[in-house]
Write a structure and sequence with these properties.
The protein is built from 5 helices and 6 strands. It is an alpha+beta fold and 134 residues long. The termini are close together.
Length: 134
Amino acid sequence: MNYTTERYGLGGKVALTYGEAVEKTKEALKAEGFGVLCEIDVQATLKAKLGVDRSPYVILGACNPTLAHQALEAEPDLGLLLPCNVVVYEDHGQVFVKAIEPGQMLSVVGNPALDPVAKLVREKLERVLSGIAG
């Protein structure tokens, strides 16, 4: 994976087909204790609702129950920011896998008790992204 850290995301380009990347991402999330709570096929939704054609794009709403529980204990309203989104998309023939950067996402709350949770989530998401590449 051509891995990058952006302002609010982690990830990058992968040497896989779109379908392979979606499946490997789900497998890697599961291996790190995340369940996929929702799967949004953006391509199909935009076609059905707006008649717009776009390249393949899926949003996977991933949640690690143990870490979500810890975070919700520290900040009950945190559910507004859950689950952690992971996207897989194709752009000009290249496939990308990216995940939310948990530290940035949780920084809007301003609760330092969430810092250790954000660190653990980031470590897990980094392993997910590395697992897709490897």
